[in-house]
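MODEL INPUT / OUTPUT PAIR
PAIR INDEX: 1
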Amino acid sequence: MAQSVTWIDPQTALPAPETALREPDGLVAVGTDLTVPRLIEAYRQGIFPWFNPGDPVLWWSPDPRMVLDTANMYLSGSLRKALRQIDRAHQRGDYERLVTTDLAFDDVIAGCAQRGSDQPQSTWITESMMQVYRRWHRLGQVHSVEVWRGDALVGGIYGVCLGRMFFGESMFTRASNASKIALAHLVAFLRCRGVQWIDCQMQTEHLAWLGATAITRDRFLNHVRQAVNAPPIEWPAGWLTSCGAVRALPANRLVFAAASIGYDQAP
């Protein structure tokens, strides 16, 4: 018997993710509202929005689900070399290349929507989606990691953190390895704070190459339901080191930060 999609209005709760369609795989519901309360309801159940411009809001919970264990990210030789080079430069007092967190969220989500200067086509990140995630960021549950080369933002990643669960949304790069550098720093940050999994949503070869694995929806949902109810982690803004610590920006980057992103180091 063919399954039918569930249409929801703003006053209707999302169906359980276990009711998702088999074809298209993981479609839970279709609606019109995209608000912070609706997003919180969805993510706490392991459901996320994904739709094209002009379409209604589509809510998904695919089976299987791709996750990255924060203890198992694969670092290639070139990525390890890039991370070592950044650390050694910092030891010399050279902060030309710097990784930060929550200092340029609006620019990161815009970069993800554009996908970099070499890929001018837009993505599924619509203007309405950017607006609601920006509001959610200002409420403290959506975060970004930024990779800088001088004054230029060359890569980044953003996602949602609820309790001890991080839901990765998108990343972009404008320089070699920049998005992977952002991810490696994010993984270190989360691992230090007891976050085991990053939700990667869909299966891709690129994510698998980085160490992500596909698991059943049941296993994913069991983990999510426990993790989102754990005490939330503290997520300060600032310089993010390769070991996952967040520090105040180096003194010689404060002028850049104040001019570019409005960073205020005052306590």
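PAIR INDEX: 2
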Amino acid sequence: MGARMGIKFPNYDPLDNVSSGSQYTLMHKIYPKEQLIPTAHWKRIVEYVSENAPEALVYDYQFPLETTAMFKPKPLVLDTTSPAFTTSIFVKGQTMKVGTVNGNLYTYDIETEQTGFHPTSNSAISQISEDGSLTLLLEMGKIHPHDEPKGSLSSLSKAAVKEQLLNNLQRPVFALNEDLDGDGHNEIVVCEFGNQTGKLSLFVNQGEEIVKKTLLSIPGTIKVIARDMNDDGKKDLIVLTSQGTEGLWILTQQAPLLFDAQRVIALAAIFGSSGFDLVDFNKDGLLDIAIVNGDNADLSMVTKPYHGLTLFQNMGGYQFKKIKFLAIPGATNVISSDFDQDGDIDFIVSAFFPDEDLAPGYSLIYLSNQAKKNTAFKMEYLPLSNLGKWLILTKADFDQDGDDDFAVGSFVFSAKNPLEDYLSEWGFKSPDIMLYENIYTDPMPQL
């Protein structure tokens, strides 16, 4: 904090903690050379924090958790020569595509259980999508924090011909390929997460060239969804940001591809935002927000009682009211659906940074809605969820029976422990993927 205000400390250089791309940090003046506040004011800030910080953190986790019978697990090992390093999952019909930190692409036929392997690069595949017959691969460059523009977006044909569409991306983690202005041609919006610097970028194909426009000039953009949020017939962008300037933004499309940005949910800089979903909780025609926060791999790795799932109700006019918080340490991803088909919205939450000592079983949680007002949820953990480190979560109807199933991808990593020690503990224990089939059936009516 002090370094960002130009405060100098003996034997400390903030750039020592920048893994790579320090020139971008210097260029954007993240750490100013001159003090922005007097030393006396800085000392008062330190004294205030020291005097008002709690002696201990108070946790409120539900115990004990039962195992849900709603979902049947199926572990998948796609590569027997390497530990689980899954970084992306895409499902269409009964075909699943899986990307890894090493740039490998796997295909898996859910019906025939046949696996295919397609090495594509040495870059972590952060997202897989499709555009017609083409597979789109978003590649980060390196998965560890950095600011260097080494990421890219490429297409892969069925004949395994790879073509780079976008390059020089700054640690991209999410891409939206959609026709935003209704002209019949897709635009691409990329969350260039970065580290100390980053941005939300819009790419427009103007025939002979692709024009790039910065929509948000802040690091930590993590996910973007296109919806008409003000009922004017134009697609707006809903964006979650982390890395300091945390919160949920709505970029209103005022005119074709001209957006006005507004942070509609402001979150604390230490919140650790990691994912969100849009869903109409109360069926009033307005899209509500479910946000998970649990990033715990940075400077403070203590388990935080404010990590979990928060529900925000859309009150209209871009006003959102917090209606529910559920504590889940290290919460990373959330999906929503009426999984038990009782007419209300349920949630699945995965946690990449769980605390198995304080909250055993919380790495993968099913939250069944017990009240139409979305204020009471039954928390249960998923069978075999202790087998993986769940970085990826995606929803799909794998068995084509009309209800939603889901899959999680494991990435064997710990921010607290050396990789060698962690791999020796986990080894090949974790599957690459765990499929969870929804096996809910309507209860027999009481006679």
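PAIR 2 NOTE: The chain has a mean pLDDT of 90.
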